[in-house]
Write a structure and sequence with these properties.
homodimer; alpha/beta; Rossmann fold; six-stranded mixed sheet; four-stranded parallel sheet
C-alpha cells in the first residue's frame, strides 16, 4: 500500500490519489524517500525508467512516454565580460513534449494513474500544465478534464485543445476552483494532478538528478528556479535530498527561488524568517506563469529552503524583461518572462557578491518562448522592406542604416 | 584544405563557403564521406562532439551549442488497432533549441563558420530556418542577416526577431532571392547557410545516426520524412550511407520522402523515373513548410532515392490534416501540417500493403505545432463556460453534454 507523508505533522497516511493533503493540517502530502537507501546512479544519460529505484513507481509503461526529460545543460558564454563570469549553465526545460518543465511531472503522474487503473484525469491551470496534462492524457487514452479561469482567452485554450481534452471555463475564484477540484475529482473518479500533486513533484526530481549527472556526479553551487506554486522547487530540492541520503552527494547546492516583486508572498515570509506565508490579494507582474498570490506548496517551500540554507529573492518586471532580452540576443534562448526570472535572480545574487568566481550556477529555463510571442519590442516592425537590387548597397553601407 | 564534391560530375572542388555549388553543372556540392573508413559508433547517447569523426569538423567549440539533438524516439501506441500495427516510432525533432530539425544543420554550419573565421552569416527563409539561424548567430555573437519574402507577416518575423538579427523583407522572386543571396554573400563576406548548404546537410546526418543508436545499432525498415528543399532527406540518407561504408550496417532502410499533392515536383519526376525534376509554377498546400516548387536539392534527392531503392509519395491536404489530428489526439504530439505528412505517407504505404507487420518504421516529426496554432477546428470556441456549482452536474451527466 502506497503511503504519503506530511512534512509538518511528521506522520504518514495511506495514499488517496484524489485528495493528497494532510487530514490534520491540510498541507500537501509528499511521497516518502526512496525505499532503498542507496539506489545506484544510472550511467550514461538516463530516461525515467533508469531512475526507477528513486521513484515511487511499481511499474513503468513505455507507451505512456512522450520523450520527456534529458534536457540539455547549456554552457553560457556571453552574459558578462569573460573575466567576470563564474561558470553558468542553463538547464533548458523547453526541450520537453509540450515545451515546459510541467511534462516531467505529468509523465510521472500519468504512470501512477495508469498503474492505479484511473481512467479520468484533470488539472486546474491556465497555461503550461493544461497543455501538458492534455497531451499525456491523449497518449494514455484517458479522458482529460481541464478547468480554466473564466476569463482565459480562446487563444490560450487552443494549445491544450489540439489534444482533444474536455475544457471548462469556470466562473469561480481560482483558489476555490483549486480546492473544489479535489472534491469533484473524488466524487467522480477524476485524478486532478494539480501543481503540488505528490507524484508530479516526484517527476521534477528527475531534473535535479540530471543536473547532477550532467555535472559528472556533482552538485552545482547554486540552482536558480522561478517560483510559483512551489511544486517545481520542492521536487528539485527533494532530488538532492535523495542524493544526499544515498551517500553520493558531497555538498548540498544553494537553491534560489525567484519570484516577481509584484507577486512575492513567499519572499516576504522568507525575509521575515516566518514559517508560514500570508496570501496576497492579487499578483501583478509580466511573468504570468509565476503569478500565484496563494501558492499551495508555499509553506513546504519555506520549510525546505530554511532547512537547506536556500534563498528566496524577488526581481522587478524591468529586471525580468531585461533578462529575457539578454537570454535571446546573447544566448540564443527564447523564453517567457517567468523563465527569465532565473537569470534576473542570478544577476541579483551576483551583484550582492554572494556568487564567487569559482561558483557553478545552474539556471532553470522553465519553458519555451514560443508559447507566447513576447519580443523585446512589439511596437515596431522588426523588418526593413527593400528591393533585391538595393540590398547590395545596404550591405555595403550597413553602418549608416543601423 | 576542405573539399566539396559534385554527385553528378563526380569531381571534387576546393571549399568555397560562400558558393557551394558545382562550377560545371550548378548542382549543390556535398561534403566527402568521413575520411576514416571505420569511425567508431559512440556509446550511450552522444552529442555532436561524440560524432566528431563522422563529421567535416576540425574543431568543436562547446560554447556554440544550444543543446541541439538527442531528440527522443517515441513509441507509437494508438494509431491503429493493436493487432494491425507494425512497430512505429516518432523521431520528434521539436525537441531542439528553436523547436525544429533545422537546428541540427545550423549547429554544424555555425561550428564550420566560426572555425573559418566567418563573422557574418545569413539565410533565405520564411520560417523555421530563419529562427534557427538567428538563435545560433546570437549565441556565436555573429551578425545575422535574414532575407524574407516581401509578403511575410510581421507575426511570422517575430519568432526570429527576438534573437536580434537584421531582417530584410525583399521585393523579389523567392527563387531569385535564393540564387542572389550567394552573390551578395560572396561580395560582402556573409556565409548564407541556406537549405542545401553542405554543412547544414552534414548536421542532419546526426538524426540518422541517433535513430541507428536508439534502435540498438540497427536501421529501421522504413524512414518517413517530409520533403521540401531536399536537404533534410539528403542528410538522413547520407547518415546511413556513412554507416554502410563503415561496415556497421546490415540493411539499408527504405527512405520515403513525402510531398503534398499541391506541391510535388519531385514525386512527379520519381513516378516517371526521370533523373531531373521540372519546377512547377506554384505550390498550393496547407503544409506551408514543405511547399517548395523548385527544390534546390531536388536532383540530388532523385539520384539518392533511385540509387538506394527509396520511395517518393504525395499526400492530399485532407490526409495531412487528418494525420495532424491523429498525432495530437491519439499520440499527444502537437505538430505543424508539414510534419504530419510523415504519418500521412505512412498510412499510404501501409494501405498499399508495402509495410508488413514485422517492419519497423520511423516517422520524422520535423517541428513543433507551437510555431503556429492550427487546431483541428478553429471556428468554434473549444471551451464550455460554466459555473463551479454546475460542474458537479456536468461530470455526473457528461454523456448528455458531449
Amino acid at each position: 500500500m502506497d503511503k504519503l507523508e506530511c512534512l509538518f505533522c511528521q506522520k504518514s497516511f495511506p495514499l488517496d490519489i484524489f485528495f493528497p493533503f494532510c487530514p490534520l493540517c491540510q498541507e500537501p502530502l509528499l511521497c516518502p524517500d526512496p525505499l532503498s537507501n542507496k539506489p545506484g546512479i544510472p550511467k550514461a544519460f538516463p530516461t525515467i525508467k533508469n531512475w526507477y529505484s528513486w521513484l515511487p513507481l511499481s511499474t513503468y509503461n513505455p507507451y505512456l512516454s512522450l520523450g520527456e526529460g534529458r534536457s540539455p545543460l547549456i554552457r553560457c558564454g556571453n552574459l558578462l565580460p569573460s573575466n567576470e563570469l563564474p561558470p553558468v549553465f542553463f538547464k533548458n526545460e523547453s526541450f520537453n513534449p509540450t515545451a515546459s518543465f510541467k511534462d516531467r511531472g505529468t509523465a510521472l503522474a500519468i504512470q501512477k494513474a495508469v498503474s492505479l487503473g484511473i481512467n479520468k484525469i484533470g488539472t486546474v491551470s491556465t497555461g503550461n500544465m493544461a497543455a501538458s496534462t492534455a497531451a499525456y492524457g491523449a497518449k494514455a487514452r484517458i479522458t482529460t478534464y481541464l478547468l480554466l479561469k473564466e476569463d482565459t482567452s480562446d487563444q490560450k485554450a487552443r494549445t491544450p485543445a489540439v489534444f482533444g481534452p474536455k475544457i471548462f471555463k469556470v466562473k469561480a475564484d481560482y483558489g476555490k476552483l483549486f480546492t473544489e477540484s479535489y472534491s469533484l475529482g473524488k466524487k467522480h473518479g477524476i485524478y486532478f494532478m494539480n501543481s503540488v500533486d505528490p507524484f508530479r513533484i516526484e517527476g521534477y526530481k528527475i531534473t535535479g538528478f540530471e543536473i547532477f549527472r550532467q555535472l559528472n556526479n556533482k552538485a552545482p553551487d547554486f540552482i536558480f528556479v522561478p517560483l510559483s506554486s512551489g511544486g517545481h522547487l520542492i521536487g528539485l530540492i527533494r532530488a538532492f535530498q535523495n542524493l544526499g541520503h544515498s551517500g553520493t552527494l558531497r555538498k548540498f547546492p544553494v537553491f534560489v527561488g525567484v519570484q516577481a516583486e509584484g507577486c512575492a508572498p513567499l519572499v516576504r515570509a522568507f525575509e521575515r524568517s516566518e514559517s508560514r506565508f500570508r496570501r496576497i490579494p492579487e499578483g501583478k507582474t509580466v511573468a504570468h506563469s509565476i503569478s500565484n498570490p496563494d501558492p499551495p506548496g508555499g509553506n513546504i517551500v519555506l520549510k525546505l529552503i530554511q532547512k537547506n540554507k536556500g534563498v528566496l529573492v524577488s526581481v522587478s518586471d524591468e529586471e525580468i524583461l531585461e533578462a529575457q532580452k539578454i537570454l535571446a540576443v546573447k544566448e540564443g534562448i527564447n523564453c517567457l518572462p517567468a523563465s527569465a526570472a532565473s537569470l534576473a535572480g542570478f544577476f541579483k545574487l551576483k551583484t550582492s557578491g554572494r556568487i564567487k568566481k569559482n561558483h557553478i550556477s545552474v539556471l532553470i529555463i522553465t519553458g519555451s518562448g514560443l508559447k507566447k510571442l513576447t519580443p523585446t519590442d512589439t511596437s515596431s516592425d522588426p523588418c526593413l522592406s527593400i528591393s533585391l537590387r538595393k540590398l547590395d548597397t545596404v550591405f555595403s553601407n550597413e553602418r549608416k542604416i543601423y
